[in-house]
Specification:
This protein has two helices and five strands, in the order E-E-E-E-E-H-H. By secondary structure, the chain is an alpha+beta fold. The chain has one domain (about 1-95).
Length: about 100
């Protein structure tokens, strides 16, 4: 398992957010010891023809890897107490449109 510290603004509830990737192609973001969201990769889903990531916070949408990381970051920010109106959340949501 690989573990990466997500960089960003300080977490209002304290502690960093962690993005975990596993050998079975699943990304999970945790904050405060809780899973905020996860994203397994499915080779049978089609986003750009090479499979897709399915983020738990948006199960009806298929994502590229970069989009999945952005969606996981938005989920983590929400779990950390950032309101939907926070400029960072607004900017990241715009990237997902």
């Amino acid at each position: 398992m690989h573990c990466h510290l997500l960089s960003g603004p300080p977490n209002p509830k304290g502690g960093p957010a962690w993005l975990f990737t596993s050998p079975d192609d699943t990304m999970t973001v945790e904050t405060g010891g809780r899973v905020a969201a996860s994203a397994p990769f499915s080779e049978h889903a089609a986003a750009e023809g090479d499979g897709a990531w399915i983020v738990s916070a948006h199960p009806a949408r298929l994502f590229t890897r970069d989009q999945a990381i952005t969606a996981l970051t938005v989920a983590e920010l929400g779990e950390s107490g950032y309101p939907d109106s926070h400029p960072l959340v607004v900017m990241l949501r715009e990237e997902l449109r």
